[in-house]
Amino acid sequence: MADVAREAGVSHQTVSRVLNEHPNVRSETRTRVLEAIDKLGYRRNLVARALVTKHSRTLGVVSFDTTLYGPASTVYGIEQAARAAGYFVSIVSLKSIDRTGVRDALDYLADQGVDGIVVVAPQRSAAQTLADLAPGVPIVAVEGGEAGDVSVVCVDQVEGGRLATEHLLSLGHETVWHVRGPSDWLEAEGRVAGWRAALAQAGRAAPEPLAGDWSPRSGYEAGRSLASMAGVSAVFVANDQMALGVLRAFSEQGVKVPDQVSVVGFDDIPESEFFSPPLTTIRQDFDAVGRNSIEVLLRQIEGEEPPACERLVVPPSFVARASTARA
């Protein structure tokens, strides 16, 4: 900074004000300082800055199974929101959920001096583990259920399941079958709850759900089972990848969608509008999840007093395409 100040013919404090975008700097002075920075190739020393300000301007993110669309999109939304707020992101991705792994991830990020941590905790075991741990830094859980004394940001999975089921019932289908996600996932639980609630409100019986693991293969196996059953005319599938497998199985078995069976997915992955037929689905707003997560975390970081735990719920939206039709 001293070199920049000499080159621009200003004081060290003026360089600091320019770097911190202080408004009380004349435009010609700001231009001169920026030209000197560019000429000298100056880069701020973030480690030194952290020592002075006691803030690293870095946030930690812990996620699980980022090979899946939901967790990967959530992490991307968090990263974009953090960058827009002027923060760097350090990500730890865990392959399995256990107390030791979560503890190690939190300790690793705390040792890096992060200002706060967002944990993407879609599994019940992860949320319970997180609730039992005290990381010593501000923390927010995404899809964390009731994560104890931790603030939570989540999509309203129950509402999503309800929207999907009510749409199919509104088309005149007697009931709606369901291909659910893994039992330990909070998102799967919420979607099942919304499906059951919509059927109960309509006075319809709920068939036994078929189990899946989020993969197209598990959807394919469920689709083969459904194709062999009598009376199946509407299916709500808990994510779009499994819905793809269901559609493939129906096609192989000669079951026409939507002429014979209507299908609704969940997530609205980029490929879903190019399925055959294009998939009616429930969209999750991952940008809003990321934005809200960072806003809640920054309120903890910047607050003078410890804030009360927050729970922000992002509504899903319905996307109508060609995979559903009147019964």
Folded structure, characterized:
- This is LacI family DNA-binding transcriptional regulator.
- Keywords: DNA-binding, Transcription, Transcription regulation.
- Residues 1-53 form the HTH lacI-type domain.
- The strands form 3 sheets. The protein has a 6-stranded parallel sheet, sandwiched between helices.
- 44% of the residues are buried.
- The chain is α/β, with parallel strands linked by helices.
- The longest helix is centred in the last third of the chain and has 17 residues, at 286-302.
- The protein is built from 12 helices and 12 strands.
- The protein is elongated, with a radius of gyration of 25 Å.
- It folds into 3 domains: 2-44, lambda repressor-like DNA-binding domains (434 Repressor (Amino-terminal Domain)), CATH 1.10.260.40; 54-155 and 286-314, Response regulator (Rossmann fold), CATH 3.40.50; 157-284, Rossmann fold (3-Layer(aba) Sandwich).
- Strand 8 (234-237), helix 11 (240-252) and strand 9 form a beta-alpha-beta unit.
